[in-house]
Amino acid sequence: MNIFRRTLLLSFVLILVSCVESGLKTEVEQEDNVTDTVITITEDSYMADNTITKAHGNLGKYDSFFDKSDFTIGISSFRINRFGENRAFAFCSPNGMKHSDSGLAESILINGRAVFSMGTKAGDESVLEMFGRNVSFDFPGMELVTKGPNGSGIQLYAPRAVEISFPAVQSKGYPVCFHKNFVVRWNKDVENENGVLVIIKWSGTVLFGKDYASSVVHSKQVPDTGTANLEEAMFEGIPDTALCSLYLLRGDIQNVEVAQMNYQLLAETHDELDFVLVRNIAKISGR
Amino acid sequence: MSSVYTEKQNITLERVSLGYDLSAFSMYCRTQGNLHGYAALNQLSGFHGMDGRGFVDFSALFGQFNSASANGPGALFVFCEPTCKGEIVLVYDKFDSDLCLNNTLKNVPVITKPYVLDFSAHTMTTAEGVSVKWIKHYSLPPNCFLSELVETGELDYPDGFFASTTKSEEGEVAVRVIDGHYSIVENTLSGAFLPGTYGFRSVTRTPLHSDIFDQGVCFGGQVNPNYRWAAPEIVKLIKKNN
Fold first, then answer.
1. Cα–Cα distances in Å, from A68 out to A143, A212, A254, A264, B217?
2. DSSP line for chain A
3. Residue A84 neighbours by CB under 8 Å, 6+ apart
4. I need a labelling partner for A83 at 20 to 30 A (CA). Which of A207, B35, B42, B141 fits?
5. Whole-angstrom distance, CA of residue A203 vs CA of residue A242
6. Peptide bond into A94 cis (omega under 30)
7. Chain B partners of A31 at a C-beta cutoff of 8 Å?
8. A270-279, B63-72, B131-140: which has the highest mean pLDDT?
9. Is the pLDDT of residue A173 over 80?
10. What is the percent of chain A where pLDDT is above 90?
11. What part of A 232-261 touches B (C-beta under 8 Å)?
């Protein structure tokens, strides 16, 4: 389950385009005379490898993602790529659970449907339709310590599928974003009371210079207003021309006890944008 | 000790035992993946028979060197009064049969007053700048018979030896002017260059050409078409002699 949560929150299987540098080319050099100026190099001149995992402020309900549980069950939506449509699926973790002798997963109902039943058709649109409204989780025949309203099962609000609208992918590929005054925009959901989790991730790849064995993850909860201005601290430890990923995630989560087991119930939607962070920009002369 | 010595003597040291411990150095090299460290150990072992930990004698210290060498072993004996107003310096930096084979210090003044002997010695210095050195300060009574030297040596290697294994003193690097001074760009890999002061030669070329950087920069919630990534300058570093 921990692996699954990390996949959702931090990694989301970041597939970097390995051939980025193949599109980079240098031109033949010409050397001038030696200057009188000097460059002093000390050990402090170099940037060290970084391993940073930092939450900026209170993550609110998203802190619950990191609680331990025996099982994680929920629904998730995301876009396969920047120009693709949203996909949604129901999941239960560990995966072997559905094949267990107890048949526990198969008996769980989401919105009254046995989504984990072998007889349920995979890939239908019914899960996607669950977003933007309340979703119920029911455990027929099992003792539910934490109950929802009127003694029913658990209800979570599955927000509308989130989509990043800015920065936007342009014709040149990855957007180039300055580390100051970094504005993010997305489709807001006024019904979502849990805010949006913003994650900036860098895995050590740079477009100029050699890659680093670094892992930097900054996260922050912001209100679901459709826009946020990220402070510079969200890019701490990330150098010029770093190929980064921006994740927006929103959803609901609740930890419950069912049949003496800890369940984490989750309804989340996330979107991802890869971009190039730059720390040095210049105005084009003549403009 | 006066500046004129009317009487000289030869002193035979019955025992010259210079201790060393390379095992810790070897272990550290291993943990650091320092190949230069291994090369240095091999040279020390080859010339002086040093391996792990133990003792070497003068004969082992000088035996492989039959001529003066800038990187050869050396020994220094400085005899002086405690006030150090006058001193006799015996320097052994090359093969000396008496010293090496018989442990004999020649032309040492006959000392009738309390005196001080500052002894120092070192092995050969490897190409990587590694050697073992011994330093001992003796305060001796007059007319004493100096018969032996026993000292534990310390490994001596240049500052930053372990960090310098992949560094060079020339090469191209990207720089920017920050606060009026040239600095290497922040994501230059550590270990690229030895710490120090460099002159440089500008390399006139576009450091990087990528379609990605041909587009405007996002900030303030919009794509600003008038701004581009500011590429650093490429220079070739040239080590200055300081």
1. 20, 32, 12, 8, 41
2. -HHHHHIIIIIS-----TTTGGG-B----EEEEEEEEEEEE-GGGSPPP-EEEEEES--GGGGGGGS--SEEEEEEEEESSTTSPEEEEEEEESGGGGGSTT-HHHH-EETTB-TTSTTSPTT-TTTGGGTTEEEEEE-TTS-BSS--GGG--EEEEEPPPP-EEES--BTTBSPEEESSSEEEEE---TT--S-EEEEEEEEEEESSS---S-EEEEEEEE-SSSEEEE-GGGGTT--TTEEEEEEEEEEEEEEEEETTEEEEEEEEEEEEEEEEEES-EEEPTT-
3. none
4. A207
5. 9
6. yes
7. 201-204, 236
8. A270-279
9. no
10. 37
11. 239-242
Q: Which two tokens stand for residue B8?
A: 């000289």
The tokens of B45 are what? 């072992």
Say yes or no: ipTM exceeds 0.90: no
pLDDT one-digit tens code per residue, A44-94? 777 777 789 999 999 999 988 777 788 888 898 988 776 778 888 888 776
- What pTM did the predictor assign? 0.61
d(C-alpha A85, C-alpha A143), whole Å: 38
For residue A61 the two structure tokens come to 């309900």
Interface test with A, best of B159, B177, B182, B187 (most A CBs within 10 A): B187
Task: State residue A183's pLDDT score.
Answer: 97
> In this complex, do B203 and A282 lie within 8 Å of one another by their Cβ atoms?
no
CB pairs under 8 A between A and B: 195
A16 to chain B nearest CA, in Å?
Answer: 15
B155-207 pLDDT tens trace: 777 665 654 344 556 677 888 888 888 888 877 766 567 778 888 888 766 66
Hey, what are B186's tokens?
Answer: 């922040």
Report the alpha-carbon distance of residue A224 to residue A268 in Å, rounded.
14
Rounded (10°) angle between helices B35-48 and B23-32: 150
Residue of A nearest to B188 (CA): A46
Is A34 in Cβ contact with B227 (below 8 Å)? Answer: no
Residue A185 pLDDT level (bands cut at 50, 70, 90): very high
Question: How far does A209 lie from chain B, in Å, by closest CA?
Answer: 7
Q: Is residue A131 over pLDDT 90?
A: yes
| pLDDT tens readout for residues A21-42 | 333 333 334 445 667 788 888 7
